[in-house]
Specification:
alpha/beta, Rossmann fold, 51% helix, 13% strand, globular
Length: 176
Amino acid sequence: MRLKRIYLLGFMGSGKSTLGNALARSINWSFIDMDHLFEDRHAMTISSYFEKFGEDGFRLAEHEILVNVSEMENVIIGTGGGSPCFYNNMDVMNNSGLSIYLKLSPEILFERLIHAKQQRPLVANKTESELLEFIADKLKEREPFYNKAGLVVDAGRLSVDDYIQIIKSSDELKAY
Protein backbone atom coordinates (compact mmCIF):
# COMPACT_ATOMS: atom_id res chain seq x y z
CA MET A 1 0.00 0.00 0.00
CA ARG A 2 1.35 3.40 -0.94
CA LEU A 3 1.02 6.24 1.55
CA LYS A 4 -1.32 8.90 0.16
CA ARG A 5 -1.73 11.33 3.05
CA ILE A 6 0.01 12.46 6.21
CA TYR A 7 -1.76 14.09 9.14
CA LEU A 8 0.13 16.44 11.43
CA LEU A 9 -1.44 16.88 14.82
CA GLY A 10 -0.56 18.67 18.00
CA PHE A 11 -1.28 21.70 20.10
CA MET A 12 -1.45 25.18 18.61
CA GLY A 13 2.08 26.44 18.11
CA SER A 14 3.53 22.96 17.63
CA GLY A 15 4.56 23.75 14.05
CA LYS A 16 1.94 21.87 12.03
CA SER A 17 1.63 24.57 9.36
CA THR A 18 5.33 25.39 9.16
CA LEU A 19 6.37 21.74 8.98
CA GLY A 20 3.45 20.80 6.71
CA ASN A 21 4.35 23.43 4.13
CA ALA A 22 8.04 22.49 4.19
CA LEU A 23 7.33 18.76 3.94
CA ALA A 24 4.85 19.25 1.13
CA ARG A 25 7.41 21.22 -0.88
CA SER A 26 10.09 18.61 -0.17
CA ILE A 27 8.06 15.64 -1.41
CA ASN A 28 6.05 17.53 -4.04
CA TRP A 29 2.69 17.10 -2.33
CA SER A 30 0.02 19.63 -1.38
CA PHE A 31 -0.44 21.06 2.09
CA ILE A 32 -3.90 21.56 3.54
CA ASP A 33 -4.42 23.51 6.76
CA MET A 34 -7.78 22.26 8.02
CA ASP A 35 -8.51 25.51 9.88
CA HIS A 36 -8.00 27.55 6.70
CA LEU A 37 -10.02 25.05 4.67
CA PHE A 38 -12.81 25.26 7.24
CA GLU A 39 -12.91 29.06 7.03
CA ASP A 40 -12.87 28.98 3.22
CA ARG A 41 -15.67 26.42 3.00
CA HIS A 42 -17.88 28.14 5.55
CA ALA A 43 -17.02 31.71 4.54
CA MET A 44 -16.45 32.76 8.14
CA THR A 45 -13.80 32.56 10.81
CA ILE A 46 -13.74 29.65 13.20
CA SER A 47 -14.47 32.10 16.03
CA SER A 48 -17.59 33.33 14.22
CA TYR A 49 -18.68 29.76 13.52
CA PHE A 50 -18.24 28.93 17.21
CA GLU A 51 -20.39 31.94 18.18
CA LYS A 52 -23.12 31.05 15.70
CA PHE A 53 -23.26 27.24 16.04
CA GLY A 54 -21.44 26.46 19.30
CA GLU A 55 -18.61 24.01 19.81
CA ASP A 56 -20.79 21.00 18.97
CA GLY A 57 -21.72 22.49 15.60
CA PHE A 58 -18.11 23.39 14.91
CA ARG A 59 -16.78 19.94 15.81
CA LEU A 60 -19.33 18.23 13.56
CA ALA A 61 -18.49 20.51 10.62
CA GLU A 62 -14.76 20.00 11.32
CA HIS A 63 -15.29 16.21 11.31
CA GLU A 64 -17.01 16.43 7.92
CA ILE A 65 -14.01 18.32 6.52
CA LEU A 66 -11.65 15.70 7.95
CA VAL A 67 -13.62 12.90 6.28
CA ASN A 68 -13.46 14.85 3.02
CA VAL A 69 -9.69 15.42 3.13
CA SER A 70 -9.16 11.78 4.14
CA GLU A 71 -10.07 10.89 0.55
CA MET A 72 -7.55 13.24 -1.06
CA GLU A 73 -4.21 11.95 -2.29
CA ASN A 74 -0.65 13.22 -2.01
CA VAL A 75 -1.50 15.66 0.76
CA ILE A 76 -0.10 16.67 4.09
CA ILE A 77 -2.90 17.80 6.37
CA GLY A 78 -2.39 20.10 9.33
CA THR A 79 -5.27 19.39 11.69
CA GLY A 80 -6.81 21.81 14.13
CA GLY A 81 -5.43 21.41 17.65
CA GLY A 82 -8.65 19.87 18.97
CA SER A 83 -9.54 17.82 15.89
CA PRO A 84 -8.11 14.52 17.15
CA CYS A 85 -10.24 14.69 20.31
CA PHE A 86 -13.71 14.43 18.78
CA TYR A 87 -15.85 11.82 17.07
CA ASN A 88 -13.75 9.04 15.57
CA ASN A 89 -11.28 11.50 14.08
CA MET A 90 -8.17 9.60 15.21
CA ASP A 91 -9.55 6.44 13.59
CA VAL A 92 -10.24 8.35 10.37
CA MET A 93 -6.66 9.63 10.32
CA ASN A 94 -4.98 6.36 11.30
CA ASN A 95 -7.05 4.33 8.85
CA SER A 96 -6.40 6.61 5.89
CA GLY A 97 -2.82 7.74 6.31
CA LEU A 98 0.12 8.31 8.60
CA SER A 99 -0.63 10.49 11.63
CA ILE A 100 2.25 12.26 13.36
CA TYR A 101 1.91 13.92 16.75
CA LEU A 102 4.26 16.90 17.02
CA LYS A 103 4.88 16.70 20.74
CA LEU A 104 6.20 19.68 22.70
CA SER A 105 6.28 20.52 26.40
CA PRO A 106 3.92 23.15 27.82
CA GLU A 107 6.93 25.39 28.41
CA ILE A 108 8.08 25.28 24.78
CA LEU A 109 4.52 25.82 23.55
CA PHE A 110 4.26 28.79 25.93
CA GLU A 111 7.45 30.32 24.49
CA ARG A 112 6.05 29.94 20.97
CA LEU A 113 2.58 31.24 21.79
CA ILE A 114 3.44 34.17 24.06
CA HIS A 115 4.66 36.15 21.05
CA ALA A 116 1.72 35.22 18.81
CA LYS A 117 -1.16 35.50 21.29
CA GLN A 118 -3.05 38.14 19.36
CA GLN A 119 -3.41 35.92 16.27
CA ARG A 120 -4.92 33.10 18.34
CA PRO A 121 -8.38 33.82 19.77
CA LEU A 122 -8.27 31.08 22.42
CA VAL A 123 -5.25 32.65 24.12
CA ALA A 124 -5.35 36.31 23.06
CA ASN A 125 -6.52 37.76 26.38
CA LYS A 126 -4.63 35.52 28.80
CA THR A 127 -1.90 36.70 31.12
CA GLU A 128 1.40 34.81 31.02
CA SER A 129 0.50 32.63 34.01
CA GLU A 130 -3.00 31.99 32.62
CA LEU A 131 -1.50 31.05 29.25
CA LEU A 132 0.91 28.50 30.73
CA GLU A 133 -1.87 27.00 32.87
CA PHE A 134 -4.23 26.87 29.86
CA ILE A 135 -1.61 25.09 27.74
CA ALA A 136 -0.79 22.55 30.47
CA ASP A 137 -4.47 21.81 31.16
CA LYS A 138 -5.48 21.50 27.50
CA LEU A 139 -2.45 19.38 26.69
CA LYS A 140 -3.25 17.01 29.55
CA GLU A 141 -6.80 16.73 28.22
CA ARG A 142 -5.75 16.18 24.59
CA GLU A 143 -2.65 14.00 24.92
CA PRO A 144 -4.54 10.70 25.25
CA PHE A 145 -5.92 11.40 21.75
CA TYR A 146 -2.66 12.78 20.34
CA ASN A 147 -0.80 9.71 21.59
CA LYS A 148 -2.95 7.49 19.35
CA ALA A 149 -1.01 8.86 16.37
CA GLY A 150 0.99 6.46 14.25
CA LEU A 151 4.14 8.37 15.22
CA VAL A 152 4.82 10.51 18.27
CA VAL A 153 7.84 12.74 17.75
CA ASP A 154 9.72 15.32 19.78
CA ALA A 155 8.95 18.30 17.56
CA GLY A 156 11.59 20.43 19.25
CA ARG A 157 14.45 18.24 18.09
CA LEU A 158 13.68 17.26 14.51
CA SER A 159 14.41 19.07 11.27
CA VAL A 160 12.39 18.83 8.07
CA ASP A 161 15.01 16.39 6.76
CA ASP A 162 14.48 14.21 9.84
CA TYR A 163 10.76 14.05 9.13
CA ILE A 164 11.39 13.18 5.51
CA GLN A 165 13.60 10.29 6.62
CA ILE A 166 10.95 9.12 9.09
CA ILE A 167 8.30 9.21 6.38
CA LYS A 168 10.50 7.43 3.84
CA SER A 169 11.33 4.70 6.34
CA SER A 170 7.71 4.23 7.36
CA ASP A 171 6.47 0.72 6.58
CA GLU A 172 3.45 2.28 4.93
CA LEU A 173 5.46 4.28 2.44
CA LYS A 174 6.76 2.47 -0.62
CA ALA A 175 6.93 5.36 -3.09
CA TYR A 176 5.93 8.96 -3.51
